[in-house]
Design a protein that fits this description.
alpha+beta; 6 helices; globular
Length: 179
């Protein structure tokens, strides 16, 4: 896939990032609360980090989109799929700025990314992980119909501490059989 998609839900527009997003991105992604829930977001998060991230969004197999409100175009977070075409699977990842937590946006955006991954990209499996201490992400993944597949004990290192990583997955036939 060379062109990144623009996806829409009832409340959200998921669109490719641009250099113009950096100013709005920094205060959202730069909080310690956001970084504490993700593996790949640094804290403090600098403009250099943002520019490096935008360069990554252009790499093959990576579909990273800004999550914006349809009502006013305001950026509220990010979502992506890391696609492994050889294995027909993708890893789902997402984050939201703290002011947008608890409003169903992560579930709504993730549901659309699952649809895109299974229906448009033809993935066989989509999986996601979350730190064990981030139980909210576990609830989101369950709402999406993902199955808990196990805990990788002290699998990752975040801020000089080893943390457990909870693994969830969904197969295409499970997505197709949902109500």
């Amino acid at each position: 896939m060379t062109t990144l998609p623009i996806l829409e839900t009832a409340r959200l527009k998921l669109r490719p990032y641009s250099q113009d997003d950096i100013e709005e991105l920094l205060p959202l992604i730069g909080t310690r609360e956001v970084a504490a829930t993700t593996m790949r977001i640094a804290h403090p998060y600098t403009e250099q980090d943002a520019r490096g991230f935008l360069a990554l969004t252009k790499e093959p197999g990576k579909i990273w989109l800004a999550v914006t409100l349809r009502s006013d175009g305001r950026q509220i977070g990010g979502i992506g799929l890391r696609v492994e075409e050889q294995h027909q699977h993708a890893e789902l990842g997402y984050w939201l700025g703290v002011p947008y937590w608890g409003q169903g946006y992560a579930t709504e955006a993730s549901r659309e990314m699952l649809r895109f991954g299974f229906e448009d990209l033809g993935m066989h499996r989509i999986f996601a992980t979350h730190f064990k201490h981030n139980a909210v992400s576990g609830r989101i993944l369950k709402k999406l119909g993902m199955r808990h597949e196990g805990c990788q004990r002290e699998h990752l290192r975040k801020w000089d501490q080893f943390v457990d990583s909870e693994l969830y997955g969904l197969l295409r036939h499970e997505w197709e059989a949902r109500e």
